[in-house]
Amino acid sequence: xxxxxxxxxxxxxxxxxxxxxxxxxxxxxxxxxxxxxxxxxxxxxxxxxxxxxxxxxxxxxxxxxxxxxxxxxxxxxxxxxxxxxxxxxxxxxxxxxxxxxxxxxxxxxxxxxxxxxxxxxxxxxxxxxxxxxxxxxxxxxx
Length: 142
Prior knowledge:
Elements: H1 3-19, H2 23-34, H3 39-42, H4 46-65, H5 70-84, H6 88-106, H7 112-135
């Protein structure tokens, strides 16, 4: 278990909740700036965006706990997203947008520990995504 990452991520989420009513618009604003081509995959589905962000947070926290069932969750998500036309580079951009949104929400309260914890766990999650992308019907387009 990556207890220090779990604590740091929890702390940053608590700080963000004190400062921002809703992180979802911040995440997607940054994501669509990085990947304008991804906007068409979402349409105006605010509920879907919120659900995806909540699932992402859950997966990040589960990464810190190193739970075995995360593999199955990621495998299902990769399969679902493949059907929508998602690519590995979209995942990378989305995860980057999450970090950028957290940093913007926390402002001066964003610490090197927060940065390291988020990036370490998102890198771990990205490695699981990439592995399942290779397994299921060949690689996702990059």
